[in-house]
Amino acid sequence: MALNLPTFYKRLGSSIVFAAVMLTGLLWNEWAFLALVCLINVLCLRDYFRLLQKIDKGAYWPKWLPIVVQLIGLLFIAIDIYPGLIFLFLAPACLLLAGVLSKKNSLLAVLQSIGGLCYITLPMFLLYSLRMHNFILPLALILMIWCNDTMAYLVGSFIGKTPFSPISPKKTWEGTIGGALLTIIGAALVGHYSGTYRLVDWMMLALCATVAGTLGDLLESKLKRIADVKDSGTLMPGHGGALDRFDSLLIAAPFAFVYVIYFMR
């Protein structure tokens, strides 16, 4: 697979702007990070609704449903962890009740919306919780995902020959393995010189970013394939929509959260 320079430069340019916005939210203060997480949640849910409506064109989507789900998502992220978990169970129950009582059959759309809360809002909530644990953790996880994506793209462009999955034909085993190894090695070097956490902790976070992140990318690619679209949206030139950009983070964040809470010292 030859390196497409125009595509690479377009992706690089939009990535620089994107990185500036992300780093501002990640590094400024707690409120900036909360605003960033809420923005990601809103944009990703919007793309998710678009995909689901293309996948199941027969489902009835009430006009109020996406708005209510967006509000639920924002409230869930902003609430402290224990009240937030209670709210996580109560809000879907209310949505289901509204779907059952609706004049038209909107139960399927409600269930799909609840799936969106689990797929997008819950990981964003856990990412925010990681920030409360230590501000370096979400920053490190996101940088590892970016590193893995970039290294996998470059390695796959130069030596990639073996397709990784029919779900994502452009991915190769060489690129996927090369990206993961380079990311884990980079994390190990950071762990060795930073002294903030154990070396194994940095490497496990990198493993979450590479393995779970790749699964997240494949999951979103599967949704796009079923919906018969190239991108989930048009937010970033060369990168597609918000869901295209954060698909890896949505799956990596829960794994990283579990590791940090139960195993990191």
Report what the structure shows.
This protein has 265 residues and is mainly α. The protein has one domain (5-262). 78% of the residues lie in helices and 3% in strands. The chain has 9 helices and 2 strands, in the order H-H-H-H-H-H-E-E-H-H-H. The protein has helices spanning 5-27, 30-55, 64-78, 81-101, 107-133, 136-159, 173-194, 199-227, 242-262; strands at 163-165, 168-172. It has a two-stranded antiparallel ribbon. A hairpin with a 2-residue loop joins strand 1 (163-165) and strand 2 (168-172). Helix 1 (5-27) packs across helix 2, helix 2 (30-55) runs antiparallel to helix 5 and helix 8 (199-227) runs antiparallel to helix 9. The protein is globular. The mean pLDDT is 86.
Number of helical elements:
9
Structural class: mainly alpha
Radius of gyration of CA atoms, rounded to a whole number: 19 Å
Globular, elongated, flat, extended or rod-shaped: what is the shape? globular
What's the rounded overall pLDDT mean?
Answer: 86
Largest sheet: 2 strands, antiparallel
What share of residues are in beta strands? under 5%
Topology pattern, helix = H, strand = E: HHHHHHEEHHH
Order the strands across the largest sheet as they lie in space.
Answer: 1-2
Number of strands: 2
Query: Number of folding domains?
Result: 1
Distance between the termini: 42 Å
